[in-house]
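Quick one: structure tokens for this chain, please?
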Amino acid sequence: MEQLNKKPTLEESLALLLNQNERTIAMLDGIATKADENFIKIECRLNKIEDRLSKNEARLHSLSAETSTNFTKVVEQLSGIKAEIVKIGAATPL
């Protein structure tokens, strides 16, 4: 019972503190390593997302250009049809 109530010596207290300090440093190193690994994974995922967005943006530009071309063709065809209707209307006696 006397040993339970015995105060540790200065050397024992310092040894305990140093031991705790070493364990804390090891734990923090482990956390830092894990954080670095996770940031690398996140960066890879973000790069993949960026690549997908770039591909989708390129597709969108392509579709937009194609749609614009198609609308131009439709307008040209409608103008031709209108001109034909006007010709028919002019040629038809009242």
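The two ends are 127 Å apart (CA to CA).
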